Amino acid sequence: MLVPDLPLRTDRLDLRLFTADDFAALHGYQSRADVTRYLYFGPNDEAASREALARKRARVALRAEGDVLNLALVLRETGAVIGDVLLIWTSVAHRQGEIGYVLHPDHAGHGYATEAAREMLRLGFDELGLHRIVGRLDARNTASARVLERLGMRREAHLRENELVKGEWTDEAVYALLAREWRAGGR
Predict the structure, then answer these.
(1) pTM of model > 0.70
(2) Which stretches make up the N-acetyltransferase domain (predicted)?
(3) CA distance 45 to 31
(4) Which of 36, 144, 153, 180 is the most exposed place for a label (fewest CB within 10 A)?
C-alpha cells in the first residue's frame, strides 16, 4: 500500500493532488488536439475535462491492484499546473506497475516530464516495492519514447496494430525498467 506524503518535491516541480481549482489548467491541455493525438481520449470539451478532473481527484493512493495515483505537475517557480503524471499498481502478485504523463506543450523540452516520471519510478520502486514498471505509448509518439529512454527504460516490445484508437489501428511500444536496474543507476 502507498499513501504518499504530498506534495512530492523534485528540483523544479511540486507533485500534488488535483483540486477543483485545477480545471482551467487541465482543460487547457486536455482540449488540445496536439496533446491528445496519441492518447485514448480527447481532445476534451469542458464536460469531458470536468469528468477527467473528478477521476484525477479520486486517484490519491495505491491501496490495491488496479489503483492509480494521479498527481498534478506544478511548476514551483510560478505555481502553474503544467501537466500530470500517474503511477498504476497493475499487479500485486507480480509487483508490477505502469507510469504515464501528459505535459502542456508550452512547457515541453525542459525535462519536466522526465523529472516527474522519475519521481513516480522512485515511488514505485522505493516506496511501493515494485519489481518492474512499464511505460506504454503509441509507437508514433517519439517525444514520449525519448522521456522513457532518458529514464533508463528499455524498449521491450513493438506491438503492430494492436489497438483501435480513435478509429485508427495503432502500434504500441512498451518500455520497462526493473527494480535492480533502478538501484544500479537506471534513474
Answers:
(1) yes
(2) 13-181
(3) 6
(4) 180
Residue 23's alpha-carbon distances to 31, 67, 69, 81, 172, in angstroms, are: 11, 22, 18, 10, 30
41-100 per-position pLDDT tens digit: 999 999 999 999 999 999 999 999 999 999 999 999 999 999 999 999 999 999 999 999
Task: Supply 177's cell numbers.
Answer: 525498467
